[in-house]
Amino acid sequence: MTLALLLALLWLSVRETEASLSELIGGIPEMGKFIAKMFPPDWKYLRVVLKPMIETIQMAILGTTFGAIFALPISFLAASNVTKGWALRTPARFILNLSRTIPDLLFAALFATVFGYGPLAGMLALSFFSFGILSKWAYEAIETIDNGPMEAMTAVGANKLQWIYFGVIPQVLAQFVGFVMYMFEINIRAAAILGIVGAGGIGIYLNRTLGMFRYDQTVVIILFTLVIVLAIDAVSSRIRGKLI
Question: Residue 67 and residue 89: Cα distance in Å, rounded?
Fold first, then answer.
């Protein structure tokens, strides 16, 4: 029954989106021509995009950090095994659902309108975007922990804060750090797009090179971003390895 439902949904999706395998195959030569225009890369363009890329990384660092700071407390309120009362848990989950409903580009456009075009709008957009995603991941991780240590602490008279600090956080810390590092990777890529709506960073230059058909410069930005993401992944793996 479940398989039939999934197949029906897949078929309806293909029909409504007019997805065509023949068109995809027919477009491969054009994709090849597009990629061919990217090479050889204009490596001199690195000097132009170095400062905007640093700005992008700074936006991602601040956005991820502020998002994580606010995500962890509300994730305790949203987790059903930590917050038993629905009066606190339901509003917390509503806030999380609302923050994930708004796309990062819309956040950036809103903040750019309020605070003006520039990296501040991008940083705030990434903060709200990170908050919604990280809090969702965090409270789901909290709900899967072993409740045995908390029950033992409750039996010996530990209060709620001690219960969370000694019983919950040690079990989810490594996971949460991994979530934060992965969110940082996502934010590097997201920040590269936010510049399209005036939120600073490398996205302005990415949009400009595409608009001017300078694909040899576009690929420099893409490869630069790839190197940054690979470096973050390597650092993230080392940090998680030390925490586990």
Answer: 19
